[in-house]
Specification:
single chain, 761 residues, alpha+beta, Serine Threonine Protein Phosphatase 5, Tetratricopeptide repeat, 5 domains, six-stranded antiparallel beta sheet, three-stranded antiparallel beta sheet, globular
Length: 761
């Protein structure tokens, strides 16, 4: 167990760590390499805090070992200190949620007072976050370290500590303490959006804060306009925690404040319907009657539209429909959307059942914006999938195939907005055709999944697995006889050559045209043993590759050996290699093409590298990447002895037998195992792919003018050559992540697929 954990930590293999946590019973002390000081022996929790890049691993560790794993010490530091030094704010937030504020003081004591003034990506310091998330004790502690001047710095949106304290839910102790410390004038300071602490306290706190503020400033402050010309009454109506501030303000400032529209045309009635429950609706009815619920706001939406979009509770929607009549549920806004559409997009099956009881099933067929029905809106519901499942159960699975005016089906929208479980549900409803669906622009379900920021990785992995199953084995591998296809001159039709063999066109007795790679043994006695071993390894790899069904991987059919000659049969791809295309075009590819090709290659590498046993290509370059006439990338020619049977296998072959040396990672050029073999890994594939990106933009691999024998020295002393000057910054960084010299720091395929370069349109 210890050795497997150490290997996963050293490799940065978060997926393996997550699996190993299931077997871990205690916070083991293990020795792990890769630190500046070499091998370091400490607890598993310390190693995770230092080495893991995945918050999910950290969370899984806490769930498995308990919070006490964060407080163990290595004589000096706890995992809390380690995470504070090496990780981002999300880790500290999880630690705080687990241990409470006591960890905050320990961290400051260890890291020094200067850390309190360091800003995060949003411009906030730990002082701002303490005002927002902690109490007066932490603020007093900070004041003792920094003095009063430490409270005058502004953070995100130019907000002061008072703004942050006003956003603290649960209590207003920090707000009161800071106002007493800094004076009541601080309550009038506007942030960059136009909000004062008064607005924010109304939005996040209760009536007690309103009373406190009135005592400091008087009631006029509640009428001051802020962001979108909103008053404190608008903000109190947005308060999803409590409606006590709203009720108090209406009582103090008068019911006229409820009819005041903001810049968008919305009143506090609209906002309370969107964020609060039926109690606020009853309060409004008692104060100003039912007519207020028919006032139109932004996009001519009423309070009923707002209540249907309420993600906190559907009690306001139900109350309004009962009080105002079910006909209000069919009223369309200026975009064509009714409360039915909004409820499908923001609420769950309970609301769907309620609407059916009021209007019948026909309401779910009514088209709205972009000709979308309720099923389309439910497919975009990022809160819950229960509305979608209920609608499918009521309307039938065929509703999932209905297209909107943009030619998008609910299946596409599920891939873009929901989670993997929902996409699986859709596939189960429709069968394999769900994965094959394309819109008018030929975008697939996978293309829409790439836009799903929250669930993209797991969706794409699953879709890749489904694509394997969808690649129907239309070519029959059970042929016994075949012949070469000949040219008009009677010559065998040569498709290409490389490595140990040549590739020809062939015709089988199953009346199918295929490609056959012919590998001839070398007659040299010094190579025969090595080649024989290589061919044995090739056969083992072929048995694994024959089971691969993936859109972006050439289909392997069979292998046979006759008279010492090995023959590998694959599908015949209609298209050209990327290298051949550039040669025919007489120019490299533009950035858009590189992005499209790279998306497909990275997705395929995730699939291959995630197999058990892992599959490595080991020969990625433009000549081994085919582009079909339909624009589909196909990886071909996995290289002789392509399959590494286990992730720790040390089998390999010399550079001139396997691949162009200019595509080889530095660890391959500088290191062989005891048998003189090269050790290929997932990261060597990534390096080769980075070199391929360079090749796509220049028509040559990096360092192409450097003699291959001098290449190891060049890579050890100089940086990899840069991309052409016209390449974007995102593309440059993407390339650099591929060709990082240290394989442990080099990106994996999953990181590359998430990279901004591949996500940009």
């Amino acid at each position: 167990m210890e050795s497997r954990l150490a290997a996963a930590l050293e490799a940065g293999d978060n997926n393996s760590l997550l699996q190993l946590f299931q077997e871990v019973d205690n916070n083991l002390t293990i020795a792990v390499g890769g630190y500046k000081t070499g091998l370091l022996e400490q607890s598993l929790a310390h190693h995770i805090a230092y080495k893991s890049t995945d918050l999910q691993c950290f969370r899984a560790q806490i769930e498995k070992l308990g919070p006490e794993c964060l407080t163990c010490t290595d004589k000096v530091n706890t995992p809390v200190h380690c995470a504070a030094v090496t990780q981002d704010a999300s880790w500290m937030k999880l630690i705080y949620e687990t241990l409470g504020s006591d960890c905050f003081r320990k961290t400051v004591d260890k890291c020094g007072c200067d850390t309190l003034m360091e800003t995060d990506e949003f411009g906030d310091t730990p002082v701002h976050l303490a005002a927002w998330k902690q109490g007066p004790d932490s603020l007093k502690f900070i004041k003792g370290l920094l003095g009063p001047s430490g409270f005058h710095f502004k953070g995100c949106y130019q907000r002061t500590l008072i703004h942050y304290a006003a956003m603290k839910t649960g209590n207003n102790y920090s707000l009161k303490w800071l106002v007493d410390e800094q004076g009541s004038d601080t309550l009038n300071v506007m942030d960059a959006t136009g909000y004062t602490p008064v607005h924010l306290a109304a939005q996040f706190q209760g009536s007690n804060s309103m009373q406190f503020i009135e005592a400091k400033l008087g009631p006029d402050c509640f009428h001051q306009r802020g962001k979108f010309q909103r008053t404190a009454i608008h903000c109190a109506a947005i308060n999803a925690v409590s409606n006590s501030a709203l009720k108090w303000l209406v009582e103090e400032c008068g019911t006229d404040t409820l009819s005041v529209a903001d810049e968008k045309g919305n009143t506090p009635v609209h906002y309370a319907a969107a964020f609060q429950n039926s109690d606020s609706m009853q309060f409004f009815k008692a104060k100003i009657g039912l007519d207020c619920f028919h006032w139109t706001g932004q996009c001519r939406q009423t309070a009923i539209h707002s209540a249907a979009a309420n993600t906190v509770s559907n009690s306001a929607l139900k109350w309004l429909a009962d009080e105002c009549g079910s006909e209000i549920l069919s009223v369309a806004d200026e975009r064509g959307n009714t409360p039915v559409h909004f409820a499908a997009m923001k609420q769950g099956s309970d609301s769907m059942q309620f609407l059916k009881g009021k209007l019948g099933l026909d309401c779910f067929y009514q088209p709205g914006q972009l000709n979308r029905a309720a099923i389309h809106m439910a497919a975009m519901n990022e809160i819950s999938n229960t509305a979608l499942k209920w609608l499918v159960g009521e309307l039938g699975s065929s509703c999932l195939l209905e297209k909107d005016s943009c030619d998008r089906s609910p299946v596409h929208l599920v891939a873009q907005h929901q989670d993997l479980e929902t996409l699986r549900f859709v596939r189960d409803c429709l069968g394999d055709c769900a994965i094959k669906l394309m819109d008018a622009d030929k975008k697939t379900v996978a293309d829409y999944a790439r836009m799903n920021k929250k669930h993209r990785d797991e969706m794409l992995k699953w879709i890749s697995e489904q694509q394997v199953l969808l690649c129907q084995f239309s070519l029959d591998p059970n042929f016994s006889n075949w012949d070469y296809l000949l040219t008009n001159g009677g010559q065998q039709q040569l498709l290409g050559q490389g490595g140990f063999g040549k590739v020809f066109k062939a015709f089988t007795d199953k009346q199918q045209t295929v490609a056959v790679k012919i590998v001839h043994p070398d007659s040299s006695s010094t190579l025969s043993s090595q080649l024989s071993e290589a061919m044995d390894q090739e056969k083992k790899g072929m048995e694994i590759l024959r089971g691969i069904r993936h859109t972006n991987v050439v289909l392997f059919l069979k292998t046979e050996t006759t008279d010492g000659e090995i023959r590998i049969f694959t599908e015949l791809i209609a298209g050209h290699s990327l290298l051949e295309l550039m040669q025919r075009l007489k120019k490299p590819f533009d950035e858009l093409a590189v992005r499209k090709f790279s998306q497909q290659v990275c997705s395929t590498l995730i699939f291959l590298h995630g197999r058990n046993p892992v599959i490595l290509h080991r020969d990625i370059k433009c000549s081994n990447i085919m582009l079909t006439y339909e624009g589909i990338i196909k990886l071909i020619d996995f290289g002789l002895a392509k399959e590494i049977i286990t992730a720790t296998s040390t089998r390999g072959y010399s550079a001139n037998q396997l691949t162009t040396v200019h595509f080889m990672a530095p660890e391959l050029l500088n290191c062989e195992n005891d048998e003189g073999r090269l050790v290929y890994t997932r990261k060597t594939d990534v390096w080769a792919f980075g070199c391929t990106v360079f090749e796509m933009l220049t028509m040559k691999p990096p360092n192409s003018k450097v003699n291959w024998m001098k290449l190891p020295a060049r890579l050890s002393t100089q940086d990899m050559p840069d991309l052409p000057p016209e390449a974007s910054d995102n593309l440059r960084y993407f390339y650099r992540r591929c060709v990082t010299k240290n394989p442990k720091e080099r990106a994996d395929a999953a990181e590359l697929l998430r990279h901004p370069f591949l996500q940009s349109q």
